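Response to reviewer comment R2.3. The reviewers asked that we include at least one raw input/output pair. We reproduce the pair for Transporter here without editing.
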Amino acid sequence: MVAWIFAASLLLYGCQAHTINPSPEPLQTGGDVYSIPLPSSKPVDQNWWASFEDAKLDELIDEALNRNFDIMRGLARIDQADALTRQARAARLPQVDLEASVLRDWADGETRNRLDRIGGALAWEVDVFNRLGSAELARQSERAARVEDLEAIRLSLSAEVTTAYFDAVGQRAQLLLLEQQIEVDRELLELTELRFEAGLTASVDVLQQSSVLAETESLVPPTEALLRVAENRLDVLIGQAPDAVDRIDDSDRFVPIKDLPFIGVPSDLLLNRPDLRALRNELIAADAEIGQAIADRLPRITLDGSLFYGDGSDFTGPAGILLGSIVQPLLDWGARKAEVERSRALYVERLAVFSQAYLQAIEDVENALFQERKQREFLDRLERRRRFLKRTVEETRDRYTNGLTDFLPVLDALKEMQRIERIIVRQQRALLGFRIQLHRALGGQVNATGNGDPIS
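Raw output as returned:
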């Protein structure tokens, strides 16, 4: 009878055997190249932000990678996954326990039987159908996913620090520009007042220029507020409470953006982006759980035994017991089958998430490339307009000084030039943002620094 059950189980296993795919691919593949023609370049073995060549930025990111509490969270999740992996691995090995017992049997006030026993007990599930092996692979894959999650946190953190850093630099540059514009407005106001005192112009010109000066000065407080917000963000990212101490000073400037980094082809994202690597490992874990659920419907073979030393009424000396058993689930009202179906549905869900994330990763790269290209064109045209406005301001001011025109052309040209100058600073910051987005979309390299302990 036992042999018949075992043979039937083997037949069932042969019909339902599950093969785990160690290298799943997304349902939708990317193209052979990106849609935007790119110059040839070679991969560089360095942190992605090193291309900015900014020593202060390097220091801030290094500090953040060693002190940020999101890093601590990622490390703790890896420790949890390590423990679960060790548990799954241990379940595949024989379990040995120390046992001791004392038996006394009394009848009519007299001891009839006595047995004292001490020894070791063994329990081992023979993993014929890879139930425990599948569970271990699932935990190993989940641990690998947690490691990739930590890499994704490091990449995201380095991008956030870079973003906050250039936000602060941008606001500091705006303040410096406003100081220069306020100085120009004051000089022009003095000129207008002198002409008014000499009877060469009307008082309305003085009022108009005073209004322009007041407008420029009114832009200072909100810019200072945005600077403080960026500075506070930097404090939090490096694991410190905001302290109202500026990390960015007037000497810090936007760095020139060099050539594009190595882009590769869309399929490279599957290897380079840690979030995609994490999703792939989650998919492998779900696949392994299908194998575990299928194996749970098949016979479970266990060996139980003990080796002990006994001292009793009928026997004294060493002894051993060995018991083998086969348990085949027969009637569970569809519970195990439902678990198989649930595991398969989970795999489909994770496959869809993985495929969608891959498409979005390609979209991120395409968007960043196109936005950076068009941003450069935009800045070139803004700079061309600024040069024309600068000449216009100089000529209209000379004509106004010589009494050849009224004040309105000077006022209009000056206000427009100042506005364009402020826009240029913002758009230079936006260009840096698109480069940061590109590095992040490509899965920019982050070499861990220090010991990785955020509270060390």
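The two ends are 64 Å apart (CA to CA). Residues 11-15 have pLDDT under 50 and may be disordered. Further pairs are available on request from the corresponding author.
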